[in-house]
Amino acid sequence: MKKYLGLALALLLLPFSLQAQSCADESPETVALRLNTALEQGEWYSAASEFDPVVMKEVRRLLMEILATTPKAQRELTAALIFKTLSLDNLSHVDDETFFADYLGGEMRSNKGRIEDAKVIGSIAEAPDLAHVLISDQRPTASFQVRKMDVISLRCGENGWRVQLTGDIRELEEVARTFMKYSSELLDPSLGRQKN
What we know:
By secondary structure, the protein is α+β, with helices and mostly antiparallel strands. It has helices at residues 2-25, 28-40, 44-48, 53-69, 75-82, 96-110, 169-186; strands at residues 116-127, 130-140, 145-157, 160-163, 187-188, 193-194.
């Protein structure tokens, strides 16, 4: 009986030991730096692969809801503003990682974002499976260069350390809905021109 009890306990603890091993394989700092390097080089799929799959699914849900509530005449334009290459028609035909990668590309384009010379300053472990990494990177502008600090939160799960979204996604959802409501009031959906 003890033999079977020991075997059952070992099987129950196996996922935890595998997770601990995947957390020990790489540091959160390595993953955060790899994310910034992918963003620097415009490698959106590599950048997306550093995010938690749950995060990618949640961002997809949020963006699809925003598009669904956008007036029909403005949906194609809204999708073109949000995404790098995906059109409204093919958004539902791609996997979460492709969707998220294209969103990252569109986000960097719309913010004219360029990241250079990323460096890890340090990290703080909030829990054994949750860490926050402070990254310093350079944001070049036309006349001068600015260094900016960013905090990247990572959680360790079965796939090792993965990037989380910082802040409350519900806040992002509310801001996006407010923006879409405001922009739809400014545009005449039938003409696509600004109302007088």
